UniProtKB/TrEMBL annotation, chain A:
NADH-Ubiquinone oxidoreductase (complex I) chain 5 N-terminal domain mapped to chain residues: 66-109
Role summary: NDH-1 shuttles electrons from NADH, via FMN and iron-sulfur (Fe-S) centers, to quinones in the respiratory chain. The immediate electron acceptor for the enzyme in this species is believed to be ubiquinone. Couples the redox reaction to proton translocation (for every two electrons transferred, four hydrogen ions are translocated across the cytoplasmic membrane), and thus conserves the redox energy in a proton gradient.
Major location (coarse): membrane
Cross-referenced PANTHER family: NA(+)/H(+) ANTIPORTER SUBUNIT (PTHR43373), NA(+)_H(+) ANTIPORTER SUBUNIT A (PTHR43373:SF1)
UniProt name for this protein: Monovalent cation/H+ antiporter subunit A
GO cellular component, one term: plasma membrane
Name of encoding gene: phaA/B
Swiss-Prot/TrEMBL GO biological process terms: monoatomic ion transport
TrEMBL record, chain B:
Name of the protein described by the UniProt record: Monovalent cation/H+ antiporter subunit D
GO cellular component terms given for this protein: plasma membrane
Residues that span the membrane, as ranges: 6-25, 32-52, 77-96, 108-125, 131-149, 161-183, 203-223, 235-256, 276-295, 302-320, 326-345, 365-382, 402-423, 444-464
NCBIfam families, per the entry: PRK12666.1
Membrane topology: Multi-pass membrane protein
Organism, scientific name: Neogemmobacter tilapiae
Main function: NDH-1 shuttles electrons from NADH, via FMN and iron-sulfur (Fe-S) centers, to quinones in the respiratory chain. The immediate electron acceptor for the enzyme in this species is believed to be ubiquinone. Couples the redox reaction to proton translocation (for every two electrons transferred, four hydrogen ions are translocated across the cytoplasmic membrane), and thus conserves the redox energy in a proton gradient.
Length: 930, 496
């Protein structure tokens, strides 16, 4: 439980700046840091337990199916890192309080820093590999925010994105690696995985898992060839560089390699990949660091180099090397964090980090000088400081591996380390005073120098008494890495026969020589072309962004015809594939004899269709030809004994053609030719093939018997007895499948609403409205807008048409007809008034609002359906009975008729609203003015 | 049989007309109907969940037995989709009230209610033709919502949207005609039984019908290359409408699930899904992710992120394995909420910045919005600690196939890069121009955004409680015997 609290504390601390926005910087830092301090105390309380070989744990299920649980475990390695994260964290918080200036947004900074702290602590405490992944990516995200903290600086933004891209990519690879690892091990519990060395190393998936996991570790810990992001991340405020990019986050990759060391190390693959990458990184980092002019750049590359050193040690796979690695983690964290903070002081007080503009600071900034001197000497590996001890251990290990060139290269790396460390001291602090510092430099207040000073004290103390200071923790964490502890021995003197002594001496000689030759070496360095990881990466990212832009634009060019062409082509291909890969037996149903009349209809249909193709640019003509097709279809329905369908099709046809004619009035009369001929041919071919395919499909269906009786048989048998009507189609529409009808009338109603809303938009001030107002009628085409004969006849027809509508509605349940058709018929009657007498005339005489008609229609239909609930029956259950009202005959009353009334009203309202909307266009275009 | 089952359809179907009939001139009352109706739908959906956990429940419309009349079937999956839809709709509705989007055109609330009616109807129905009807309802209502507020570009995109989807509707009809012509039934469960019993010689035509239906659902789900309607539609729709549309693509995924589990026999499904859906899903993810990386505007970026998320969903659906299906459902819930969140934030960016363009810096946006975007981007890219990460891990773990792993991880990378780029430009680069951000998010809108984020957090924290329910759903889909039995079908070929 304590452990869970420890893990939660930094996150709770991250909330403080948001919860107490009014707090000043000092109190806010104090409040936030108290969470870190508490966590540190809680961890420290567990030290005795860990030392005695226990590992406090906390477990809470999260997503068992995934193998993800919130399991924490504090063993030696976790303890070491937790102390580093929290201890240095406290110092950094203090330092940041004094480092950031007034105009920096301090509260968010604290939040990001604490988020990072929580994430980092989570990584080291996780005993679940997936939980570790979660915290792992969280460190990438919080580091992104911290690097980009100075939002106005382009370097900060680019550095942030580059860090995220590199570490994020590695993280994604690691996800795969971790999943493989947990699948081999059969568990995602780290403490369980660590017991499965044999299974894991024997698995054929060992190498892929290793590579994927190492990708994550290498990117995070800035190992070659992924090291280039770390120097770019130095755009972050210095407290961030000191904390994330030297002491903690970049050690996450190393932590992971140490964590999984028992199961992954010891194979030749591990040796070559890890030790190789480490060694190369150590050399490259040290070399580049030596030539840096930016103080932070030098420290950044030296960090890369030292991370390489630790990686190299872990890669060696021996127990002694692992101990050295762990020890160097501690030492590097102390001297490097101190150096970064000191570099921040120099930047803060002297106004520049450019080494070429510095020098001679030892008298002006004596305290800072003392700090840098000690920390740098430790970095260089000068006895008796702590850096010396771990460097000696590293050289000792390197000397014992074959091939011998490894020892040589390690010595070279150590020499370069000496060189840049001494250069840091010599070029920044030694030499003559200068007159041209951007700021007059002086030592800062204790708020800035005290945190690094504490670390420097540690550097000295660990150096003087390594076993007393760190023996216990190195022992415990090396024990956690290698699985056996107890025999850590760190000393300054190993005797004259130790190769490390001679290698060390060689390194010092090399370093001093390099420093004395610096100007000449620099000229040489500047003269050689260098592959710039940063630039390559920027090109890669920029290039892929441009490439995706191009691909996206190519695919999504916005052309509707092409989109539809692709859809149909896919349909054709998929349909053909589906048909041709399964057995097919042609149908056996005999075709009906083709009669003359049907043949004529068929010919007309074909002719009209081809005529549309030919004349489709003349819109009015195309519309009329379309209506011919519609009419033939209606006739075909009638011919095939479906009078209801015929009536519906006919009325729908009339309404749509009339509406479209009215709409065409406001549109250009001809369609421009847009596509080139070859595309026409291509589209035509696809369209024709699709049409033929659908035709073939329908032919195949019509020429076969269904394998089972259709549900229509039930409808035919029960329409009268159970549905109370002899017109089966109508009974299906209002009863058997009344729910479909309910949906469809809603669709009609919505469609009308949409038309209304759209037209409303057109009529609001804008280009469409302007165009409307300047529209002039085609006087040449129509001399008389409202021919007297047309007006008279339509007005006389109106009552007749209304009566027909009522008749069709009433007979619907038993004879062809019904609410849907009736609604359309009445709608047509009104439509004719609009056409004959004009929009304004008709509009002014219609009293009922069309919205209300639609609303009432859907409501009546819905409430009729809901009425059944009163009898405990489902929605839309109908009821019918027979009543006799003298002097009339006995007649039938059915709730279905009420439902049909809803249908009628909705359809009528929809047609009306559509016309009325178009009428509004007409009135706006000035119909009334003529 | 409880009437509660039909209420998610009937309630909005009545509130919509009431709004039209009585409150045409009362904007405040319209808002009350919209908000009240949506809240009631959420309560209803939550009340239906315990009913659904008792096993699939049948509702016979008009009291006609299946397969002769239409039935609704409420099972866990349907209930889940109802809850998801209602919750999302409520958040969107609150956002709309906070930003005044509903006042920018006519009939917003009626259309909104009809849209919900269409969605709920599609999730509840157990009848294939009725599914078509509700596809029409939601299509036409969504078209109305999409062009809400007008503007040349939006209306043009609207025309493309509705035309393309009407082609889909035609295919749907042809597909339905084909299955009806083969089997003589429209009830989904009955279809499944009859198709399984068809003679060998009918296989080719049946498979054609299956392909037709699959393509229709793929259009709805924006599966590449049938996704071409989506980017413009979502990018140009009003922000809150695009947010609501996050659940529309899921209708396609939902219907695909029903097609695969109930309507088609196993062999056919395996062949179809494995051959068509799996590669298309991977392509969808990559094309969507490339679109995110290359987008020049935030709205388009959000739209392509929606495409990418559907890619992941279809990859998961194609596997036909209960564990993968459960993982996919989890990811689907996540991507619906995360997608909506991103669209709402995009709308705020557009409002405060007067542009969503990603090529030029403008004065900085408020820090709250930056924080919200950061969270939305994490969710969209499927990064930890939010549910997207868990969803992807679940899919990866249950589908250990290297093309899938590569695609999903590569997709995540591209999304991450693209979103980091736009975030940096939108929320950081502006500080080069001005030191202080301007503008603020309306309180109700902020409430809606935070509610969506909290829902993602809850989805993450309670993954251990939610996932078993999804496993149950996946199991039911894999072996739909209870669903079929609930339909209470007569013995095949027998007369009732």
């Amino acid at each position: 439980m304590t452990l869970a609290l420890v893990a939660a504390l930094p996150f709770l601390g991250a909330l403080m700046p948001a919860l107490f926005p009014r707090l000043g910087r000092g109190p806010l830092t104090l409040l936030t840091a108290s969470f870190t301090a508490l966590a540190l105390i809680l961890v420290a309380r567990d030290i005795p337990a860990v030392m005695s070989g226990q590992a406090p744990t906390y477990a809470q299920d999260w997503l068992p199916a995934l193998g993800l649980s919130f399991t924490l475990r504090l063993d030696g390695l976790a303890l070491l890192f937790a102390l580093l994260i929290l201890g240095i964290g406290l110092l950094i918080l203090t330092y940041a309080r004094f480092y950031l200036c007034e105009k920096d947004a301090f509260a968010p900074f604290l939040t990001y820093l604490m988020l990072f702290q929580g994430a980092m602590l989570g990584i080291v405490l996780s005993d679940n590999i997936l939980l570790l992944l979660i915290f792992w990516e969280l460190t990438s995200l919080s580091s992104f925010l911290l690097i980009g903290f100075w939002k106005h600086l382009p370097e900060g933004r680019q550095g942030a994105r580059m860090a995220l891209a590199v570490t994020g990519t590695g993280g994604l690879a690691m996800i795969a690696g971790m999943l493989i690892l947990s699948q081999i091990a059969g568990s995602s519990q780290i403490s369980v995985i660590l017991t499965k060395t044999a299974e894991i190393q024997a698995s054929p998936l060992y190498l892929p898992a290793l590579i994927l996991i190492l990708l994550g570790a290498f990117t995070k810990s800035a190992q070659f060839p992924f090291h280039f992001w770390l120097p770019q991340a130095m755009a972050a405020p210095t407290p961030v560089s000191a904390y994330l990019h030297s002491a903690t986050m970049v050690k996450a990759g190393i932590f992971l390699m140490a964590r999984l060391w028992p199961v992954l190390s010891g194979t030749p693959e591990w040796f070559w990949l890890v030790a190789g990458a480490g060694l190369i990184t150590m050399l490259i980092g040290a070399k580049v660091a030596f030539f840096q002019h930016d103080l932070k750049g030098l420290l950044a590359y030296s960090t890369v180099s030292h991370l390489g050193l630790i990686t190299f040690l872990l890669g060696l796979g021996s127990k002694a090397a692992a101990i050295a690695a762990v020890f160097h983690i501690v030492n590097h964290a102390t001297f490097k964090a101190a150096l970064f903070m000191a570099a921040g002081i120099v930047d803060h007080e002297a106004g520049t980090r450019d080494i070429r503009r510095l020098g001679g600071l030892r008298r002006l900034m004596p305290v800072t000088f003392a700090l840098v001197l000690i920390a740098s000497l430790s970095m260089a590996g000068v006895p008796p400081l702590n850096g010396f001890l771990s460097k000696e251990m590293m050289l000792e290990e390197a000397a014992h591996v074959s091939p011998w060139v490894i020892g040589l290269l390690a010595t070279l790396g150590a020499g370069l380390s000496v060189a840049y460390s001494l250069r840091l001291i010599a070029h920044v602090f030694l030499g003559p005073d200068r007159a041209d510092y951007p700021h007059p430099p002086h030592d800062p207040g204790p708020g800035l120098w005290l945190p690094p000073a504490l670390l420097v004290v540690l550097v000295v103390l660990i150096g003087l008494a390594p076993m007393a200071m760190t023996g216990w923790i190195v022992n415990a964490s090396a024990g956690a890495v290698t699985g056996q502890g107890g025999d850590v021995h760190i000393s300054h003197w190993h005797g004259l026969h130790s190769p490390a002594l001679w290698m060390s001496l060689a390194a010092f000689g090399l370093g001093l020589m390099a420093l004395s030759l610096f100007p000449r070496l620099l000229a040489l360095w500047e003269g050689t072309p260098k592959p710039q990881g940063k630039r390559i990466f920027a090109h890669l990212i920029g290039g892929s962004a441009r490439l995706s832009q191009a691909i996206t634009a190519l695919i999504h060019n916005g052309a509707q015809t092409r989109a539809l062409m692709i859809a149909l082509a896919v349909l054709l291909a998929a349909g053909t594939w589906a048909f041709s890969t399964a057995p097919h037996l042609p149908g056996t149903r005999p075709p009906l004899p083709s009669e003359g009349l049907a043949l004529v209809g068929w010919l007309v249909l074909i002719t009209a269709s081809f005529a549309i193709l030919r004349f489709h640019r003349q819109r009015l003509l195309a519309l009329i030809l379309t209506s011919v097709v519609g009419l033939i279809v209606s006739a075909a329905f009638a011919y095939l004994s479906a009078p209801d369908l015929a009536l519906t099709q006919l009325t729908v046809e009339v309404v749509t053609v009339l509406l479209m004619m009215l709409a065409l009035n406001f549109l250009p009369k001809a369609t421009p030719r847009e596509d080139p001929i070859p595309r026409h041919i291509r589209d035509g071919a696809i369209a024709a093939l699709t049409g033929l395919g659908v035709g073939a499909l329908i032919y195949a269906l019509m020429t076969r018997q269904m394998a089972f009786p259709s549900i229509a048989e039930y409808h035919l048998e029960n329409a009268k007895t159970l549905g109370g009507g002899t017109n089966v189609v109508n009974v299906i529409l209002v009863d058997f499948r009344g729910y479909d009808t309910f949906g469809e009338i809603t669709v009609m109603g919505i469609a009308a609403l949409v038309i209304y809303a759209l037209i409303d938009q057109l009529l609001s001030p804008g280009p469409a409205n302007d165009r409307l107002q300047s529209l002039r009628p085609h006087e040449g085409d129509a001399g008389d807008r409202h021919p007297l004969l047309f007006v008279t006849v339509t007005r006389a027809l109106l009552p007749l048409a209304l009566l027909t509508g009522v008749f069709i509605f009433l007979r619907g349940h038993n004879m062809p007809g019904g609410g849907f058709i009736a609604g359309l018929v009445v709608g047509i009657a009104f439509l004719m008034q609009y056409m004959a007498s004009g929009f304004g005339w008709t509009q002014s005489r219609l009293r009922i609002d069309h919205h209300a008609l639609i609303g009432a229609g859907v409501l009546i239909a819905g409430l009729t359906g809901a009425g059944a609930w009163a009898w405990g029956l489902p929605f839309l259950t109908s009821h019918f009975g027979y009543v006799t009202l003298p002097p009339l005959d006995k007649f039938e009353l059915a709730t279905a008729a009420l439902f049909d009334l809803g249908v009628f009203l909705t359809v009528l309202g929809a047609v009306q609203l559509a016309i009325a909307s178009i009428a509004r266009l007409g009135i706006r275009s000035g119909e009334g003015r003529i | 049989m409880t009437h509660l089952i039909i209420l998610p359809v009937v309630l909005p179907a009545l509130l919509g007309p009431i709004t039209l009939l009585f409150f045409r001139a009362h904007p405040a009352a319209q808002r009350a109907m919209g908000l009240g109706g949506t809240a009631a739908l959420l309560a209803l959906a939550l009340a239906l969940w315990p009913i659904a956990t008792d096993g699939p429940q049948l509702y016979r419309l008009g009291d006609w037995p299946a397969p002769f009349g239409i039935v609704l079937v409420l099972d866990r999956l349907a209930a889940l989709m109802l809850i998801l839809t209602a919750f999302l709709a409520l958040a969107v509705q609150i956002y709309v009230l906070g930003t005044g989007w509903d006042r920018k055109g006519r009939h917003f609330h009626a259309l909104f209610l009809f849209q919900l009616m269409g969605l709920n109807g599609a999730f509840l129905t157990g009848d294939a033709f009725n599914l078509f009807v509700f596809f029409e309802v939601l299509l036409i209502a969504s078209y109305g919502l999409m062009v809400h507020g007008g503007g040349t570009n939006r209306i043009r995109a609207g025309v493309q949207y509705v035309t393309y989807n009407l082609v889909g509707s035609s295919l749907f009809l042809i597909g339905l005609a084909t299955v009806y012509g083969m089997t003589g039934t429209l009830n989904m469960a009955d279809l499944g039984q009859r198709i399984a019993a068809l003679p060998d010689g009918d296989m080719a035509l049946t498979r054609v019908a299956a392909v037709l239906l699959l393509l229709v659902f793929a259009i709805k789900g924006a599966l590449v290359p049938l996704h071409l309607w989506l980017p413009n539609t979502y990018a140009l729709a009003p922000g809150p409408v695009a947010a609501l549309f996050a659940v529309m693509t899921k209708v396609g995924a939902y219907a695909t699930l029903r097609l695969g589990s109930v309507m088609l026999p196993k062999g056919t499904t395996e062949l179809l899904f494995g051959t068509l859906l799996a590669p298309a899903g991977m392509l969808t993810l990559i094309i969507g992710a490339l679109g995110v990386l290359g987008a020049k505007g935030l709205a388009r970026q959000a739209a392509f992120a929606a495409v990418a998320s559907m890619g992941t969903v279809f990859i998961g659906l194609s596997a036909l394995d209960p564990a993968v299906t459960a993982a996919t459902l989890y990811y689907m819930i996540h991507s619906t909420l995360a997608g909506a969140l991103l669209f709402l934030i995009t709308d705020q960016v557009q409002t405060l910045r007067n542009s969503d363009d990603l090529t030029q810096a403008r004065p900085p946006l408020p820090g709250t919005l930056a924080a919200l975007f950061f969270v939305a981007a994490i969710a969209t890219a499927g990064m930890p600690p939010l549910s997207g990460f868990l969803g992807k891990l679940l899919i990866l773990q249950s589908l250990p196939v290297w093309p899938v792993w590569t695609t999903i991880l590569l997709g995540s990378l591209l999304l991450m890069l693209g979103l980091a780029r736009s975030g940096s430009l939108l929320f950081w680069k502006g500080y080069e121009i001005a030191a202080q951000p301007t503008g603020q998010i309306p309180p109700l809108a902020r409430f809606a955004l935070v509610a969506l984020i909290l829902s993602l957090v809850a989805l993450t924290l309670f993954a251990g409680q939610i996932h078993p329910a999804l496993q149950q759903i996946a199991q039911d889909l894999h072996d739909p015997i209870a669903y079929v039995q609930a339909n209470d079908l007569p013995a095949m070929g027998a007369k009732p």
